[in-house]
Amino acid sequence: MKPAPFQYAAPESVEETVALLHAHGAEGKLLAGGQSLVPLLNMRLARPSVIIDLNRVKTLDYIREENGEIAIGAMTRQRTAERSPVVTRRLPLLADALPLVGHLQIRTRGTVGGNIAHADPSAELPAVLAALEGSVVVRGPGGTRRVAAHGFFVSYLTTALEPDELLLEVRFPAHEQQGAAFLEVARRHGDYALVGVGAVVTMAGNVCQRARLAFTGVGPVPVRIPDAEAVVTGKMVTDGVLAELGKLVTHTIDPTGDIHASAEYRKEVAGVLARRAIQAAAERARMKQMRMR
Amino acid sequence: MATRYFGERIRRNEDPRLLTGGGTFVDDITLPDLLHAALLRSPHAHARVRRVDTAGAEALPGVVAVYTHGDLPPSLQEPLPRPIPHPALVHHKTQYALARDKVRHVGEPVAFVVATSRYIAEDALDLIEVEYEPLPPVVTLEQAVRPDAPLVHEDTGTNVCAQYTQRVGNVDEAMARAAHVFTERFVIDRGTAAPMECRGIVAQWDPRLRQLVVWDSTQAPIPIRNGLARLLGLAQGGVRVIAPDIGGGFGPKIMMFYPEEVLVPYAAMQLSRPVKWIEDRRENFAAMNHEREQIHDAAIAVDRDGRILAVRTAFLYDSGAYIPYGLTVPIVASTTLPGPYKIPNYHCEFRAVFTNKTIVSPYRGAGRPHGVFVMERLMDRAAAELGIDRVELRRRNLIQPHEFPYDVGLIYQDNAPLIYDSGNYPATLEAALQKIGYEHWPQERARYRAQHRYVGLGVACYVEGSGIGPYEGCRVTVEPSGKVYAATSVGTQGQGHFTSFAQIIADALTVRVEDVIVITGDSGAFGWGTGTFASRAAVVAGSAVHLAAQAVREKTLLVAATKLEARPDDLVLEHGRVYVRGAPGKSMTLAEVAVAANPLRGTLPQEWEQPGLEASRYFAPPRGTFPNGVHAAIVEVDIETGMLKILKYVVVHDCGRVINPMILDGQIRGGVAQGLGGAFYEKLVYDESGQLLTQTFMDYLLPTAMEVPEIEVDHLETPSPLNPLGVKGAGEAGVIPVPALMAQALDDALSELGIRITEMPLSPNRLLEMIREARAKRPSPHPDPLPKGEE
């Protein structure tokens, strides 16, 4: 488990990084926290000819509040985000999901941007971004552009990033007024989810005004099911509504099976988790309303 | 015997060293001019090797040598040794150090590269061209025994390498007249030991001393030395095998031989440069031996009161592609099965079967978990069918304390009669029941049901064979510094021998535990022995340690008697000092006696026999000693996701006299963790082409501290009459009953659904599948609340 030979570059600025990406194209591979890339290198499953190490690019490590959004720099460690009071207060869904990303050691190295750019369909953060309808900011030789979550995740481990583009930051809409819950079933604590779901609801009294759900582990990208969200929208969150939601989710999604769980398992459990997540999110929203009164 | 230390929770002598990074593991061995090896392994489960072209690899700068089968000397072109024969093992096939004309499992070594770095060695592997002709693989046990199955070894004409039957009484007759006979099929799938440290070997040939030194992560350094001497044409004294600190053994690190164990020393000699090979995790999954895979067709016959009349099992044992370790695992499974119960008629037969998968050899438990799973599941089935409480059924069949020694009527893995030496099975069971709260369980269970929670309780009993022969030895020396050195014949892989052996010696010589330095696993320090396996180090080596320490004590008194002009009977040894009884002023320290015992002038008194305060002793038990235990647990199932939560876990265990309860508790807890892994997390998955799909820790799931619950451990102490310490083995106690226990707890939790667990390991996926199937058959118990307290 030693990597094949590669060249190593350690740029210190975004401009330098973009220039390197441009020069090496698909042969260059960005190294952020290394929690996915390094094992792939060691198993020789990835054999890039150039590793471009982002760890000396200091300007990508930040958490800022801007216009109702929280912008998290791509090189911000997951653990830093997890401990950020801004994330805890204004991004409850992200705060719920971050402790489920690997283990403490992994989050201490792993970055928010790396996790999003790697686009593992079983990872938590892409589902959070999808549920919140957030976006990413990317820089290429032609300049900076913003890509919405639904357009960013293209397929399994594939994003809208061009080979010479660098993900600069991830923007999560603040949602402290809403109820949020991220639930997942993983074989063990810290494993990739067999199925996971992020839920955000806006409640008016006992009525759900708006609900968003994004699933992980059940498709090539984070999965949204508008019909399922519609089931709860405008209704009281009763057992009957939740049961209908669960059935619809199970019926609608089309996951694939692997050695850890069959497609049937994922379908069934996605329905269960959707139900539980909406229930938990609605409960939290009600608690917030009570506290604000 | 004074027991200042024996039985105490003494902190481990080795921990300050290990915790501060002072350990020496194989990979810590660095030597000048060290070369690094890597192996090209078969990507096919079954293929003919048509051609191996190493030219490209040899041309890569930094590559020093590339070996294939034909490049090896004649002794290494033969199949590797067969150290554990058995009359029933008709086709005793072992692998070649490097594949000759055929590969028989994914991961089998084909070529061996030595280079100036491991990176270059791995680059070179990419440049070796092998022409394989793929053959149809034999992947499953059922497939292997079909008449038209492809043959793993063509010359055998069959994939069945051994068929072996043991009988007690007359099972057919007993079953014919029994009130009830229940039959069941049980399936246990593959797992791997996954030690924290993978295997590793460093070898150095010293042409001046004409000595080969090998650092090897083996559990059996002395047999490896003996075998290497023979294979490489050296004197046994010309080979020194050192098993340094080892990050867990668990069984598969004893194998005489793994290919790498001969290739690395051979290359070091041939190249006259030290060579290192460190197994990486991906290699370890395919190249270190596996275990667990068996399919049992079993039956139990009981009378109306639930008394066992007969038990029968016929099972298939997957040996993998070769069977170097013989029939140990299936024999242990067969002989562990009867457990603590009186079974007047017993029939067990197995077929050991070749498949195109990694070799199987003992892994912690070594067949015991299988036997216990089958027996306990049969007991649960009988209890359920007869409507007798499962614990009551067990009580009615337990061997009673006055019935020891109890002859089970079988031959054990050491070829000696299976005779339980001592124990108190009813007391062990009652203690566990009390700890888990069995008496109040019906109310407790009803309370959970009222909350729509699916919670079950399990209780499983087992008897563990341990402490078998042939022998182990120890040499104890008091040096002139007053420090005591003890060289033992066994290797150590984390069991705490540096402390438990020191406790035995410290008591004999009245010194502090810290002043006893134990040396393990170095054939240069002690040259006769077999190894650490079968929960035998404390029993067999520990007894030898005790005998040697007692001999040194006697020698100490003898020498001191001469010097103090007293009779040995009048001397007292206390706090490392010998004095004349009633005259404490007339005394010598142990250090002074050690100096006196090795005079520079004059003559050595004849009655001293030899110089120094030193003695070597061996202990050879007549047969194994048998600890026993009961585990109990309360487990909750989320019936919508198939996820488990263990709410309580208790162990009551009797391994005779306890040397160090802290070390013992650790052994048990670690074993339970591995048992839980084997019950719910760990499973090696092969696809239909024989590819191993689980070759990382992302896919092969070891339970972590987050998954393993608090484990309460209690001990009874029924001494063994078979050794001077009264001890029994404890290395496997934690793991053995876990699958049986989890199965029973799950049955209990899911009893409304009529689910009966007959396979291991499980997973949330599999549990939910069973729940789904059961619900399809029965009216759904969810979400409707259940009647309170109803079974």
Automatic annotation (TrEMBL), chain A:
UniProt-recorded Gene Ontology molecular function terms: FAD binding; oxidoreductase activity
Keywords carried by this UniProt record: FAD, Flavoprotein, Oxidoreductase
InterPro entries attached to this UniProt entry: CO_DH_flav_C, CO_DH_flav_C_dom_sf, Diverse_Substr_Oxidored, FAD-bd_PCMH, FAD-bd_PCMH-like_sf, FAD-bd_PCMH_sub1, FAD-bd_PCMH_sub2, Mopterin_DH_FAD-bd
Domain of life, source organism: Bacteria
Keyword Flavoprotein: yes
Domain FAD-binding PCMH-type stretches: 1-177
SUPFAM superfamilies: CO dehydrogenase flavoprotein C-terminal domain-like, FAD-binding/transporter-associated domain-like
Cleavable signal peptide: none
PANTHER family referenced in this protein's UniProt entry, alphabetically: XANTHINE DEHYDROGENASE SUBUNIT C-RELATED (PTHR42659:SF2)
Name the record gives this protein: Xanthine dehydrogenase family protein subunit M
The organism of origin for this protein: Candidatus Segetimicrobium genomatis
TrEMBL record, chain B:
Residue numbers spanned by region Disordered: 772-791
GO MF annotations in UniProt: iron ion binding; oxidoreductase activity
Record bears the keyword Oxidoreductase: yes
InterPro entries in alphabetical order: Ald_Oxase/Xan_DH_a/b (IPR000674), Ald_Oxase/Xan_DH_a/b_sf (IPR036856), Ald_Oxase/xanthine_DH-like (IPR016208), AldOxase/xan_DH_MoCoBD1 (IPR008274), AldOxase/xan_DH_MoCoBD2 (IPR046867), AldOxase/xan_DH_Mopterin-bd_sf (IPR037165)
Keyword Cell cycle assigned: no
Cleaved signal peptide residues: none
Domain of life, per lineage: Bacteria
Domain Aldehyde oxidase/xanthine dehydrogenase a/b hammerhead: 20-136
Keywords: Molybdenum, Oxidoreductase
NCBIfam families on file: CODH_aero_grp5
Name assigned to this protein: Xanthine dehydrogenase family protein molybdopterin-binding subunit
UniProt source species: Candidatus Segetimicrobium genomatis
